[in-house]
Amino acid sequence: MIGVPDVQFGEELCAWIVLRLGVAADEESIKAFCRGRIAHYKVPRYVKFADELPMTVSGKVRKYVMREISTEQLGLGAAATIATA
């Protein structure tokens, strides 16, 4: 999970999920699964499915790249400028 800009709260959660071969899921099923197991404020507002996560050469996840991609795809660019002001 990563934080993406939000006007009201500053940041909201965005979950990036890589599904295993032959497994199907949708955004609502992921959120419903989380609601029964974790606190309500930890349930991701956005869910993004990806084929793979952006990685560094040494195999670490590049979270700043994930944040940039999520912000762009979700159209949160205006929220980013307001949240940082």
Outline:
With 85 residues, the chain is α+β, with helices and mostly antiparallel strands. The chain has three helices and three strands.
Shape: globular
| Spatial gap, N to C terminus | 24 Å
Strand order, largest beta sheet: 1-2-3
Segments where pLDDT lies below 50 for 5+ residues? none
Q: Would you kindly provide a written description of the structure presented here, covering whatever features stand out?
A:
β1 (2-6) and β2 form a beta hairpin. The longest helix has 12 residues, at 63-74. This protein has a three-stranded mixed beta sheet with strand order 1-2-3. The protein is an alpha+beta fold. The chain is 34% helix and 20% strand. The chain has a single domain (2-84), classed as 2-Layer Sandwich (GMP Synthetase, Chain A, domain 3), CATH 3.30.300.30.
Write the layout of secondary structure elements.
Layout: E1 2-6, E2 10-17, H1 27-35, E3 46-49, H2 63-74, H3 77-84
Parallel strand pairs: 2-3
Antiparallel strand pairs: 1-2
